[in-house]
Amino acid sequence: MLVAGNWKMFKGHHQAREFAAQIRRIPAHAQGVDVVVCPPFVSLDATRHGLGDDSGVGVYAQNVHWELEGAFTGEVSAPMLLELGVTGAIVGHSERRQHFGETDETAGLRAEAALEAGLHVIACVGETAAEREAEETEAVLARQLAAIPRHERLVIAYEPVWAIGTGKTATPEIAQEAHAFVKSLHEAPVLYGGSVKPDNAATLLSLPDVDGALVGGASLDFPSFETICRAGAEVA
Ligand code: 13P
């Protein structure tokens, strides 16, 4: 069971350090749950320091480039992350696909390079509302998954785009069906993401093919993130 908090573009250096000093207490109350936080690049180091050395909370980046170094303004490489003590990265998040030109191909390149360098990877897939309405969900997921490598350090996150930041969580039936489909094509643990909150976490996390959660908004607040991690511990 993995519960990861994606902080998106929230929490700068100071806030991240203070928040991390609270988060470090969570694993002691959430046995069987791997707790991970994904701060913005500039807050990775502060988060590591706030957590201390023995918290057991993993720190992942929200993105990673596929080259080791080079003329790629605005990008960060896997060796740079490893040097900071960062142990993983998200790739292919729908917000990167929507706003920053991320494609299946570039998400795949990022995942491959990160895995090769020794990082863990959370690779995101998910359909838009229009794609679901057009009954293209399975075709979209299959296309996105085909670009994602198979690896023991890789986890998939199923994040239906229409459920992200909208408060419209997938019903348990929709989530279970999509997770089972993803697993039929890709042998990896599958996290659910999209409006996971303290009041729906237990239901979602207890579904047979849901192996954890990728939490956005509700991961920014200590009590709500802790509650979600504890819900994971109950079904782990
Ligand atoms: P919300 O939990 O805010 O809907 O965000 C989900 C997400 O995009 C996590 O990566």
- CATH topology label: TIM Barrel
CATH C-level class: Alpha Beta
Read across the widest sheet, the strand sequence of neighbours is: 1-2-3-4-5-6-7-8
- Ligand types: 1,3-dihydroxyacetonephosphate
How far apart, in Å, are the first and last alpha carbons?
6 Å
Cα radius of gyration in angstroms: 16 Å
SSE map:
Layout: E1 2-6, H1 13-23, E2 34-38, H2 44-51, E3 58-61, H3 78-83, E4 88-91, H4 94-99, H5 104-117, E5 120-125, H6 129-133, H7 137-146, E6 154-158, H8 172-185, E7 190-193, H9 201-205, E8 212-215, H10 222-235
Parallel strand pairs: 1-2, 1-8, 2-3, 3-4, 4-5, 5-6, 6-7, 7-8
The structure holds 1,3-dihydroxyacetonephosphate.
Residues 6, 93, 159, 164-165, 193-196, 214-218 line the site of 1,3-dihydroxyacetonephosphate.
Keywords:
single chain, 236 residues, alpha/beta, TIM Barrel, eight-stranded parallel barrel, 10 helices, 39% helix, globular
How would you sum up this structure, described in words?
The protein has one domain: TIM Barrel (Alpha-Beta Barrel), CATH 3.20.20. It has helices spanning 13-23, 44-51, 78-83, 94-99, 104-117, 129-133, 137-146, 172-185, 201-205, 222-235; strands at 2-6, 34-38, 58-61, 88-91, 120-125, 154-158, 190-193, 212-215. Helix content is 39%, strand content 16%. The N and C termini lie close together (6 Å). An eight-stranded parallel barrel has the order 1-2-3-4-5-6-7-8, surrounded by five helices. The chain binds 1,3-dihydroxyacetonephosphate.
Question: Can you summarize this structure?
Answer:
The protein is of the alpha/beta class and 236 residues long. The chain is 39% helix and 16% strand.
